[in-house]
Amino acid sequence: MPRCDEKNGTCERTIYVKNPHLDSMKDDILYHFNLGTSSHDLPAMFEDVKFVCVGGSPRRMKSFTEYIAKDLGLADPNAEYPNLCEGTDRYAMFKVGPLLSVSHGMGIPSISIMLHELIKLLYHARCTDVTVVRIGTSGGIGLKPGTVVVTKQSVDAMFKPSFEQIILGKPVVRSTELDAKLAEDLLKCGDDLGQFETVIGNTMCTLDFYEGQARLDGAFCSYTEEDKQSYLAEAYAAGVRNIEMESSVFAAMCKLSNLRAAVVCVTLLDRQKGDQLTSSHDVLNDYQQRPQMLIRHYIKKKLNASKKS
Amino acid sequence: MPRCDEKNGTCERTIYVKNPHLDSMKDDILYHFNLGTSSHDLPAMFEDVKFVCVGGSPRRMKSFTEYIAKDLGLADPNAEYPNLCEGTDRYAMFKVGPLLSVSHGMGIPSISIMLHELIKLLYHARCTDVTVVRIGTSGGIGLKPGTVVVTKQSVDAMFKPSFEQIILGKPVVRSTELDAKLAEDLLKCGDDLGQFETVIGNTMCTLDFYEGQARLDGAFCSYTEEDKQSYLAEAYAAGVRNIEMESSVFAAMCKLSNLRAAVVCVTLLDRQKGDQLTSSHDVLNDYQQRPQMLIRHYIKKKLNASKKS
User: Fold this and answer.
1) What is the mean pLDDT of residues A74-103?
2) Could you tell me the pTM of the whole model?
3) Nearest chain B CA: its distance from A141 CA (Å)
């Protein structure tokens, strides 16, 4: 249920957990974060969170926090941002002002564990109006390397816009719909910046980086270059512009919990032209900054708008 | 093809890559390890590897390396073991003598990326007779917490002993058979030690930690305690003694590449009695040492046997 504030006429968008069992638990241990409702005062720590950025690598999520803090003047630019998940190396989490930055590892199962615990954390902390963005890297199809793709729909390896969750041994199909308005706003941020190309397109989410993405350079490969190219061409025809490994379950879980969500990934290479990442470290590093730049711009706009209102 | 040594009458078990494209590549970049055939002398670095231990957490794999080094007198006990994947935080890798210790993150996609690159690394380094063991944590069914389970068969959420790999959008079913002799040898090591219970049983491998394992404490739960208990009872009847998230693809990929493989996981709780990990940090830490102790004993026996022969 939305919490409504009669004074300023707004309704706050709340976060849903859909689990009747949670209310009867005395304590909730968020094991992979090394946080819990008894051991930590979650509202005091997190109630002001409005933006959550998630990405694969712990180091990247730390440097993103420092970048945002410095740039938006949210805190002392020389401050140290402690890892709030200290005591575990499953995930890393950093906070500065209304921004929470969390790593999720690689692949659907890894991000799904993190999201279960993140959604419960935001719920326990009584957060409202939270926007969650996955910022990551991907392989592109038919795009110049370095292009940033804002995901329209996350599709599976058969190009279907759904995610299959196995529950009690049986498949349950969930929608991978993302927030269309947020995607448009993010595309606009790319245009505002004008420093790199930003497009909206479908994102294919696979369970594997090599055979699952038709790469020819894994330990196993039973198909030809022609098979690969025709699969990628089919994907392109279905609107797919990039391939990564987390967006489908991310979209499905954010939708179920009423979180405004988007996926913004840079393409590190054009998969129609190759499989290996041969660009220099510096070039790849520059590409990886781009989704961060875009989100920084988005957060800046939102914070300025809320100051004015 | 096995390389045969006529002098001592042994045939060396070689590692297969099943990919005709690899031979035509000038260079092979193992991107997620930050290693490559042009940038590193892989045979010089890795040719003597005989045991590979893999586990989810980078810290645990580092401490395992130190533990083995100290205990087996393989190196200066005060030596520092550098992370061989320095420059990336996707995985961490440590080596001491014939042991390679590698982290794999959480879930099938994460371990699958690591294994593609590990198998290619062992192949490029011309390693032979390699034994790979996953040491990890799991939820038990009908076992006292702290019991170590050596996997007989890795089964999916429908209790089938197979792994479905999506290739070019189509499912390909692979066997998850593990090395039966190795499993027996490892069970024997548990008996030798006599410090904790060790059993052989089937291991269920799921794509999700919460709904996928019938937990009642995720952000979402659409089933009752009774549904959960009846699913776990079905699993138990199918021979399942523990549940984790990597064994199926691990077994399938090791089998395809001719690696002798085993899965050894400790159970952190009995899932029929609960879902949350409420044991103290010290108790959980003690449990997590057990697969390491077992493998240490196995490596010791093997190294002693090879010294004698």
Assistant:
1) 90
2) 0.95
3) 15
